[in-house]
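REQUEST FORM: STRUCTURE PREDICTION
Request ID: SP-0412
Submitted by: Lab K.M.
Chain count: 1
Length (residues): 209
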Amino acid sequence: MSGDSIEEESMTAVLLPVDPALLDRDDLTVDDLVDLPEDLRYELIEGRLVLTSVGLPIHQFLEVRIANAIEENCPDDFVVNVEQALLKNRRNEFRPDVLLLHEEGAGRSPVLPVHVPLVVEIVSESSRFTDRRKKLEWYQALKIPAYWIIDPLGTLVTLTVFGLGPDGRYRSQVQTDELVTLDEPWKVTLDLPAWTRKRDRLRAASADV
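STATUS: Completed
RESULT:
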């Protein structure tokens, strides 16, 4: 093996926070991931470890604003978390951008769907299909009562609210780009026009650099 190859392999080992062999497997379970670094951003999808990058500043901004909005009138027996691991089954572990959790389910991670009344995903360029199709199906199958999608990629930042109907399927309940106050899980006000203005300022500032 050449010196260059050895150096490249060493750099890869330093840059990757996990054993590269894990990324080649499609038979992983949650038990295989217990020793991963606690601050590692990842999801387990159908037995494959998927590393997720830190979102753009607007993504992080929206995470904070959404969590704060839900927290505003949050009862004491609930917890609002960002990027909390959520268990589907042994081969699937998701990490929603924002998650609402019953307090009695907060003693473990990943948390169980039965303790989660709401998940929120913020759409990114790489997650358009997953958030709007696959995760919609997955969260519906887990019987999560409410699923919100925040999409900052269009002309305006938009919100779509899905709720479980009597047939156990999600129904679109709200679609808006305006200032909105939701009644569930309690009074939650989301200032979508303000978020659009902030996003546009961030885009303009980046373009000037």
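NOTES: Residues 77 and 167 are 28 Å apart (CA to CA).
Reviewed by: T.R.
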